[in-house]
Design brief:
The chain folds into 2 domains: about 120 residues, Alpha-Beta Plaits, CATH 3.30.70.20; about 45 residues, no CATH class. Helices cover about 25% and strands about 25% of the residues. It contains 5 helices and 8 strands. The chain has a two-stranded antiparallel sheet with strand order 1-6. A hairpin with a 2-residue loop joins strand 4 and strand 5. It is globular and about 55 Å long. The model has no long low-confidence stretch (mean pLDDT about 85).
């Protein structure tokens, strides 16, 4: 089953460890501006911390606008072929999420490649704000969180195989899916 890198912004502390591990894996340097993930912080009330990373869209505009076909899907992940890329940066402009980046030291766009299917950012996120979730379960987490926040519930009870189970609100979306 295909798994998708998912962001749960409510759990992000803004530590930016994901940016550090990504830049180290991608470029071998401790430079968050060279990461394929960026944590933005918005200061309305409440403060929102939101990791921005490639969504690996099924119909990706970055792939469509590339004039030389340097962006190609491989096992569900849109990959940048640096041997083909002409550094026009049209993919950066086309991404509706702003998840492809440029850096003055880098000849090519910086884009998440999912670390070959085992993303470092997911492994190192101390709060579990970044997760690999089966694509079929993506909407379920959002629906449960919306219902629980709307009703002010702190937990949900359900029966599985005849056994009563209780999930705390903070636990929804973890790897049990």
């Amino acid at each position: 089953m295909s798994r998708k890198l998912t962001v749960i912004p409510e759990q992000c502390s803004g530590c930016k460890i994901c940016e550090l591990v990504c830049s180290i894996r991608q470029f071998g340097v401790n430079n968050p501006k060279k990461a394929a993930i960026r944590v933005i912080v918005v200061y309305p009330h409440p403060v929102l911390r939101m990791p921005i990373v490639c969504s690996q869209c099924k119909r990706s505009t970055c792939e469509e606008v590339c004039p030389v076909g340097a962006l190609r899907r491989d096992n569900g992940v849109v990959q940048l072929d640096k041997d083909v890329c002409i550094s026009c940066f049209k993919c950066i402009e086309a991404c509706p999420f702003g998840a492809i980046y440029a850096h003055e030291d880098c000849e090519f766009p910086i884009k998440c490649d999912m670390c070959g299917g085992d993303p470092e950012c997911v492994k190192k996120c101390p709060k579990g704000a970044l997760r690999l979730i089966p694509e079929a379960a993506l909407g379920e987490v959002r629906r449960l969180n919306n219902v629980l926040s709307y009703t002010q519930m702190k937990e949900i009870e359900f029966y599985e195989k005849g056994e009563k189970k209780v999930i705390q609100y903070a636990e929804i979306g973890k790897e049990e899916l």
